[in-house]
Design goal:
The chain is α+β, with helices and mostly antiparallel strands. It has a domain of 146 residues: Butyryl-CoA Dehydrogenase, subunit A, domain 3, CATH 1.20.140. 63% of the residues lie in helices and 11% in strands. It has 5 helices and 5 strands, in the order H-E-E-E-E-H-H-E-H-H. The protein has a 5-stranded antiparallel beta sheet with strand order 4-3-2-1-5. Helix 1 packs antiparallel against helix 4 and helix 2 runs antiparallel to helix 3.
Length: 219
């Protein structure tokens, strides 16, 4: 029962990780730049994401521009697009597979099949977490290196936005959920290998006893 509760907890973490992954992929605030200027009325917040760049004015106006050209983008943005989409796909597959393999569900057949399904789902979560962790780390590195570069003017420097932190947290949730699913199945199989079912067969003794009874019948 404890193992089923642990799997359910890992499934909830994975759900948060999947939703966070999707939100981080779509949010436009991967890096943020606040330019206040000489007057607070002219304050502008510029946000850049994987798919669009947005500008928010202090007057309440909000405008976004989609990034149509893929080849004109920097390499780290192209890589972040690809890996984040792969992370969302793998995590969604993991949700479907673990739904079948969890002990608290009545899907997936026998216990052995459900164990293999849980392990496959855990691997999908781990891969999804890795694919989500790589672009957020790379993107943060590029932001920090540009921020520390003295040749770049202050008005062109950016800071990590909320989407980056959401991506980090979602990747952590997916990695934890994947490790829990994989280790729970591994412990079960490992225990079965160490403690095999005890079955004692004594064919020679049975034959001797039967032979003895047969001889006594003839005496």
């Amino acid at each position: 029962m404890a193992s089923a509760s642990l799997q359910f907890f890992a499934f909830i973490l994975a759900l948060f990780g999947v939703f966070g992954d999707i939100i981080a992929t779509l949010l436009p605030n991967w890096k943020v730049n606040a330019d206040v200027g000489s007057n607070i009325i002219t304050a502008i917040t510029q946000m850049q994401g994987l798919w669009m760049d947005c500008t928010w004015y202090s007057t309440g106006m909000f405008s976004c521009t989609l990034k149509y050209s893929v080849l004109s983008l920097p390499v780290y943005i192209q890589a972040a697009r690809t890996t984040m989409v792969l992370s969302c796909i793998l995590s969604a597959f993991g949700i479907c597979i673990t739904t079948v393999g969890m002990k608290c569900t009545k899907l997936g057949g026998d216990a052995n099949s459900k164990s293999h399904a849980c392990f496959a789902g855990g691997v999908c979560f781990i891969l999804g977490g890795i694919f989500g962790l790589v672009p957020t780390s790379w993107y943060t590195r590029e932001i920090i290196s540009s921020f520390l570069d003295q040749t770049i003017p202050e008005s062109s420097k950016h800071e990590p936005g909320g989407a980056v932190y959401t991506g980090f947290i979602s990747a952590g949730f997916l990695l934890i959920a994947g490790v829990i699913f994989c280790t729970s199945c591994f412990k079960k199989q490992h225990g079965a290998w160490i403690y095999p079912s005890k079955q004692h067969h004594f064919p020679s003794t049975d034959q001797e006893s039967n032979t003895g009874y047969n001889l006594k019948d003839y005496v």
